[in-house]
Automatic annotation (TrEMBL):
Lineage: superkingdom: Eukaryota
The protein's name: Ribosomal RNA methyltransferase FtsJ domain-containing protein
Secretion signal span: none
PANTHER family named in the record: RIBOSOMAL RNA METHYLTRANSFERASE, TRNA (CYTIDINE(32)_GUANOSINE(34)-2'-O)-METHYLTRANSFERASE-RELATED
Length: 64
């Protein structure tokens, strides 16, 4: 039999769900923040309503 759609999801998808992130893209933003210090000096951010909202979720956790 073929693989189910759950089996096809990669490790970052599963990690995101386990850690409470909305999408796997949260890990990419965290990686970019670590490398380039994107949030240094940031006090406010604007959410432009992009789905699923994982970047806004990362920002809200980091800026607290």
């Amino acid at each position: 039999m073929g693989r189910s759609s759950k089996d096809k999801r990669d490790v970052y998808y599963r990690l995101a769900k386990e850690e409470g992130w909305r999408a796997r893209s949260a890990f990419k933003l965290l990686q970019l923040e670590e490398r380039f210090e994107l949030f240094r000096g940031v006090r406010r951010a604007v959410d432009l309503c992009a789905a699923p909202g994982s970047w806004s979720q990362v920002l809200s956790r980091r800026l607290r």
